[in-house]
Write a structure and sequence with these properties.
Layout: H1 3-12, H2 15-21, E1 23-26, H3 28-31, H4 39-43, H5 47-52, E2 55-57, H6 62-75, E3 83-86, H7 99-105, H8 108-124, E4 129-130, H9 154-169, E5 179-185, H10 204-211, H11 213-220, E6 225-228, E7 232-233, E8 236-237, H12 242-252, E9 258-260, H13 268-272, H14 278-288, E10 293-294, H15 298-308, H16 314-330, H17 343-349, H18 353-366, E11 368-372, E12 385-388, H19 413-421, E13 426-428, H20 437-443, H21 448-454, H22 461-473, E14 477-483, H23 502-513, E15 517-523, H24 531-534, E16 539-542, H25 550-558, E17 623-630, E18 634-635, E19 641-649, E20 655-664, E21 676-685, E22 690-697, E23 704-705, E24 711-712, E25 716-725, E26 728-736
Parallel strand pairs: 1-2, 1-10, 2-3, 3-4, 4-5, 5-6, 6-9, 12-13, 12-14, 14-15, 15-16, 18-26
Antiparallel strand pairs: 7-8, 11-16, 17-19, 19-22, 20-21, 20-25, 23-24, 25-26
The structure holds beta-D-glucopyranose.
Amino acid sequence: MKTIELKELLMDMSVLEKIGQLVQFSGEFFESQDVTYGPQQKLGISQEIVDLAGSVLNVTGAETTRKIQMNQMAKQPHHIPMLFMSDIIYGYKTIYPNPLGLGATWNPELVAQACEMAAKEAAASGNHVTFAPMVDVIHDARWGRCLESPGEDPILNSSIAQAMVYGFQKNLSTGSGQIACLKHFAAYGGVEAGREYNTVDMSMSNLFQNYLPPYKAAIDAGCKMIMTSLSSLNGIPCTADSWLLKDILREKWGFDGVIISDYAAIRELVSHGVAIDNKEASLKALMAGVDIDMQSSCYSNELESLVTDGILDEDKITEAAWKVLKLKNELGLFENPFYGASKKLEDKNILSQENRKLARNLCEESLVLLKNDNNVLPLDITKKIALLGPYADCQDMLGMWAVHADNSKTVTLKDGIKKYLGSNLNCTKGVDLVDDIKYLQGMWDFTSEEVQDILSASKNNASEMNVALTLAKESDYVVIAVGEQSKESGEAASKTNLHLSDSQIELIDKVHKLNKKIVLIVISGRPLVLEDILEKVDALLYAWFPGTEAGDAIANILFGKVSPSGRLSISFPRNEGQLPIYYSQLPTGRPANSNSARFTSRYIDSQLDPLFPFGYGLSYSEVRYKDVQLSKATYSVDEELEIQITLVNEGVKSVKEVIQVYFNDPVASLSQPVKRLVAFKKVKVDAQKQYKLIISIPSYKLKFFNNKGDAVFEKGTFNIYVGRNVHDCIKLSCEYI
Ligand code: BGC
């Protein structure tokens, strides 16, 4: 539709019709025929506003979306199509690893391809907007939403954020893309004590330097929608924060897309204690710049009377409705309200061999080898191998946010390993993921069948364990696959205990006592505390929630078809007491390595450093860094700093190395982090080969943010660190004059 026609449409709409464009409800509102007792009654809203609603949440399927779209358009005076929005966080039906795994790939190009694939699948099912990327920087593994974020670093998160936006939105014009809705704005990852929905309080410098860059990067990449955070920032709930939404997002960053609240976040302004009732909450949110109210009765029930009472200018509603209409028009919905929805395309594209292959490649690159004593991996197929543990033969490996996927499509570890070993593989569960039924029931509303299934080994504990130990005794190597139950990570899954369950630890202990070589695979949505079991295993492979192709990807790594190339995008704590933990800390006046043993910044009962640092991960050949040098000792501000690097692979396997470049500004007007990632590159180095490259860094990347939120560059000495992880680097220095 031409802009002028769209404007005419807007001018012709009643206030209530425009309000309709600003509300979003879940699918049950549209599928239900029952007006009196339906979900709208629960929320206290009228059928009239449901019929005028401009968007719907988490409904997919070509046939369903087409039907709902047709019905809804027929009811509306101007027959305006709805937007279908869903959580396609790490795949729609073909699931790739959860975002911590995406971060661990350090491969934005591959991530972009995966998002493009997910967008095609979702578009065929009639979806238009995905609530991704989630790019909240995280420092605390207690927070269950670690699962959804690429990691702890603003530069890595920015790069993954851009790749995701690019991938999702690449094919928008051909009916096979998805509008990316960035979230959760802003700094949700900084919730105190890792507790879900909790407060965020931080300095401006910290906010601008460490938390805001990934959102900004996504917006610079053209992201068309953004979701507010459920949390408050420095005392103001983000959904009512006009400084954040207007001054920063719209004015400073030039964002002109649509702002949507998170689920019921407008109503929650009352619980946050900044609004007396839903009316005030609605006024505050709209005035702060929130265009769409997700799943609350605020905008639908309050905005009209705010206008008639003369409190709210109708223009504010018109402005917000205009943004929503513009977005619909950009998708071409006025010409084709069904967008990409097609049963034929669903059948053809979803879970195709091509999509599975991409998910497999991405999964392979996301797996992080954390220990490999005496090169126990790759495994020798001629040996006798037992596969034990609750994830040995389990399809529920997709994690909480794979909400549209079907576990039954997942390749299990047993299936993957069998492709190498055939009938030589012995496999049993031994123990369950969770020991405690009360914990399980408090975690999620599981059906009784699900509970039975999750606790199937405990019913029969002693004999299950015995079978497992018998298999272990008969084998040369034991692969044990353990981790978190899929609902133990994700939204509202904050935990204070990050250890494996007792029975999983017991299984590892008992197999260890048999003197067997143990390869431990951990599947989880966050870093777990593994220090105690580390010495009991020979190899440790971290797999996140690995997705649909889990079994094949993990087997390809275990048997050496592919060399591991994942690197941690988050520091692994030794214990929960170290949290929050992240590498880019500010120096203290008394660093732990200074002379006085006691009066330094340390713990008296724990080491200070993480169990595994940011950027860490092993491969099957170690790559040596040779002749690493800067092109000059002194640079002027308008010159690019150049680092020459030669990588040497002296091993027998081709590998991918992630070169990481960090810097530190040792003397500045504001204390600066001990290290900050500034560039990275993943490169393939063939066996017995060298690879030379130059990494260039413009000086603006060495700026820091002050407490006014301004980026400043202060000349002087800079330390540059080049290496394979944040702790294992070659140090160089230069001057900026
Ligand atoms: C979550 C969002 C999600 C939304 C819609 C909320 O509870 O915080 O991340 O996109 O629900 O499902």
